[in-house]
Amino acid sequence: MKTALICGVTGQDGAYLAEFLIQKGYEVFGTTRDAQGKSFVNLRRLGIEEKVAVLSMAPEDFRSVFVTIKNIRPDEIYFLCGQSSVAMSFEQPAETIQSYTLGTLNVLEACRMIDKPIRQYHAGSSECFGNTVGVPANESFPFSPRSPYAVAKASAFWLTANYREAYGLFACTGVLFNHESPLRPYRFVTQKIIQTAKRIAAGSGEVLELGNLEVSRDWGWAPDYVEAMWRMLQQDLPRDFVIATGQTYSLEQFVSATFGQLGLDWRDHVRSNAEFFRPTDILVSRADPSLARIEMGWKAKFGMEEVVSKMLDSDDIVVV
Ligand SMILES: Nc1nc2c(ncn2[C@@H]2O[C@H](COP(=O)(O)OP(=O)(O)O[C@H]3O[C@H](CO)[C@@H](O)[C@H](O)[C@@H]3O)[C@@H](O)[C@H]2O)c(=O)[nH]1
């Protein structure tokens, strides 16, 4: 039986990955900053709360990271920790940058010191590419970060690449484009749209206020994407991959699809409010995930319209 350590197991990706690895027969350990007395909502929603051993680990604290990895001696580590909101990174830039750079460095250093070859997955982000006007971004597309979050993720990406090259570690980064699910917190735009549209359809009479409706993203289905993480660690050689559907839609199209599936015209219920604009934002985010298909046999199963219907179908109550 293989052992996996998921750092950041309580988030959307951590919970789906834990579910996926349990189904694959792994023994799964997970970390969160403070595991004492917490209830793990996402793990409970997936019915796996009792199947994951959750430990406390502070990613920025080397001692905490080292001791956790040394005690568990996992075959695979999935490092998914960090402040994941791009919007919040403008309010908390230092916390965001520290969580990714120090956290990533600590895992890489700890793995160097432990006498076991541990395969590492690091969570990268399409935010690193910035605007991808013209050619869709593949693994050799240059980085042009447009937020403190993206700067932090770019730094973590290069740390991982450097440690792989310098010390021969099996460490790779998945450069994931947006991926959504019912476990998405409300502060991300898709969940805000889905939940508000559902309330409007039920007669709430409210108006959905959003920022820039002209931005575009490549929206995929999060459970698909955790499989790509696992596949990356099953390759013969460590390598970075772009993970996306390959289809880009504007936010207006996402909104239109959501209201349309509820039998409503979005124009009657949605307003753009400058309060939700970011100081800098990615206007166009376009992906070329063909390497993942060629090398790992991975392809996104669901596109934007299906993501919308799956999120609408979920009965989960999201805490606003
Ligand atoms: N959150 C939010 N975003 C809004 C809103 N109105 C418009 N937007 C726009 O909608 C786009 C998507 O925003 P988010 O859902 O917050 O996601 P993100 O910034 O694209 O980042 C997500 O995807 C990255 C790539 O996978 C991830 O790296 C990141 O952690 C996060 O999950 C952004 O251009 C944002 O400005 C709003 O009311 N709320």
Automatic annotation (TrEMBL):
Q: List the EC numbers from the record.
A: 4.2.1.47
Task: State the reactions this protein catalyses.
Answer: GDP-alpha-D-mannose = GDP-4-dehydro-alpha-D-rhamnose + H2O
Q: GO MF annotations for this entry?
A: GDP-mannose 4,6-dehydratase activity
**Cofactor(s) it depends on:** NADP(+)
Lyase recorded as keyword? yes
Keywords, ordered alphabetically: Lyase
- NAD(P)-binding domain span: 5-311
> Is Lyase given among the entry's keywords?
yes
Q: Which InterPro entries match?
A: GDP_Man_deHydtase, NAD(P)-bd_dom, NAD(P)-bd_dom_sf
GO biological process assignments:
'de novo' GDP-L-fucose biosynthetic process
Provide an example Pfam family for this protein: GDP_Man_Dehyd
Q: What does this protein do?
A: Catalyzes the conversion of GDP-D-mannose to GDP-4-dehydro-6-deoxy-D-mannose.
Protein family according to the UniProt entry: Belongs to the NAD(P)-dependent epimerase/dehydratase family. GDP-mannose 4,6-dehydratase subfamily.
The identity of this protein, by name, is GDP-mannose 4,6-dehydratase
